[in-house]
Design brief:
Helices cover 64% and strands 0% of the residues. With 70 residues, it is mostly helical. The protein has one domain. The model has no long low-confidence stretch (mean pLDDT 84). This is Extradiol ring-cleavage dioxygenase LigAB LigA subunit domain-containing protein. It comes from Shewanella dokdonensis.
Length: 70
């Protein structure tokens, strides 16, 4: 769970990491060390799954999509 939280935090705070993810999400996720179910939830942008998988149903997640396909 901690790896997922760190990944999402980095995705939100690190513009270079976000750009790399946007350009090639499969590679970034493969290199992330995330468990498969976590990586799949990130790739699907499944907010409900991310909230559950993070281990705290009270932590809100906001997925920002500027109209570009991730």
């Amino acid at each position: 769970m901690e790896a997922l939280q760190l990944f999402l935090t980095r995705l939100g705070e690190d513009a270079g990491f976000r750009a790399a993810f946007s350009a090639d999400p499969e590679t970034v996720l493969a290199q992330s060390g995330l468990q498969e179910q976590h990586a799949m939830a990130v790739q699907r942008q499944d907010g409900a799954a991310l909230q559950t998988l993070s281990g705290d149903d009270h932590v809100p997640f906001l997925i920002v999509n500027h109209g570009n396909r991730l």
